[in-house]
Amino acid sequence: MKKNPNEVPEHEPNQQPDEIPTTPPSEIPETPQEDPIRQPEPDTFPEPTEIPETPQEDPTPY
Length: 62
What we know:
The chain is mainly alpha-helical.
């Protein structure tokens, strides 16, 4: 019973802090930075294009 609680905290803190600062820092600045910047650009362009088309069709049916 004394070996179980001692082995868990020693292996968990050693594997977690070692894998987190090695993988996230490397994939976060390369993938998440290029993904969120490219997605918001194409999403903002289609919006302004639909806005001018809506007001033009509105005055026509009136």
